[in-house]
What does this fold into?
Amino acid sequence: MRLSRAFLSRLALAMVLSVPIAGPALADAEKLEADLRALFADQPGELTIGDVSESLLGGETRAEGLEYVSERGERVHVDRYVVEGDYDDPDRVVLEGLKVTEEEDGQTGTITAHRLVVVEPSRPVLSPRGVLADGLEAAELTAEELVIARSGRTVLDTAGEAPRSVTNPRLTVERLHVRDLAPDTIGSLEATDIAGSGEAFGEIGDGEFTLGALNIEGLHDLKSQTEARADRVELKNLDIEAQRLVATLERLLVDGDMADGAGGLWLESLDLDLARMIELAPAEKRTRLRMMSNVLTGGNGRLTLDAAFDGQWKSLDDRRAMLLGESRVTADDAFRWTFDSETPARLPEGVDPSTYFAEVKGLDDVTLLGGEVETTLTDLGLFGRLPAVIATSQGMSEEEFMAQARTQAKGLGSLFGPEFATLFGGLVDMMEGKASELVVHFTLPEGDEQDLDALADDPLVLPSKLSMQVHTR
It folds into this structure.
């Protein structure tokens, strides 16, 4: 019998395709099942796996219908667990239909994700109970439709702050993307379409929020709650609706990496709906809050803030650096405050300036060596509204209040010196409409720690020692 060339070609292809089925495919499937069972073997419970297999051509090993139930009530469910590429050195690991449930003290915590993708992970089997906390290394991690919720009261222990509690917290993230993941660091983290809610959260009460985007770069020291920090944090389009806080924020940017010579904080369009917040406040507090709102907003009930705190440093030599600061805070229809400084400083002995400022948390160990500081207060409507409101609250006329304010300014000036007399008098001039800006300029003395401590202990000599100058515009 003669065999056609086409038939022989199909027969050869079938023989080639049959090789992975008999060898490596079965081995990788067995590896995946064994690794999954080892993952849940640390505590008593029952693990069931529907099916474990590998694709016909190899390169993909999967487990279907993974379900784990512990004796403590913990439940882990994964619709599909897929390892792509070489099993021992995978290109990607994909978890679909992830749900983790924990029960403790009658409270239930749940984490769900529609899809979790890890690119170039350091191992093929990941812990669904704590992907970011089990020593994993990966080039990228993406989570879609992430939901974190907990029933009952939860205590939030924030480093450096008093613990706060929240009841029934819930957080949803449409998409989370992490790059350069390591046990103690994360290169970058981006989350979009975030929403959260909770009850009885500290001073703001019940509330909810939405956040368009959150970007974090350079996360360090993640294993330490007190030392953890980020080089850069940016959030956009924040909307808060709570019992005692109603606000929107267009953008917040924090640049905490001073190693490149600059950093700071920028706040764009923080809008506080004071009128709604007053309506939600207890009845006995509304009159006083409404009075404060009228002073700040001129009666429209909305306060919009913009702020910028920009810091820079320039190395002068191995031990000295020039510290530059520019700060701006503007409250629409109320006031503008600026603060500019240029001060040389001596750093602690034995430190490199770039290394020091990369991790600086304060300037307690820096010695100022003189410099210039200037601050300006500009009236955008606030000071013109103060006399009427204060006079009403004290049961007197505006004329009586202004006369009293002028007398008190002169008295404080006689106590603290002529510079302070000009300062307090300038504030009164702004309330009377005679001035729109008050400028205070300081020339700092050169000295060491002892000189500065002496000045702090004797504030009455500050104006002369600091060469304080005050004027209005």
Notes: The radius of gyration is 32 Å. Residues 44-110+119-130 form one domain. The chain has a mean pLDDT of 85.
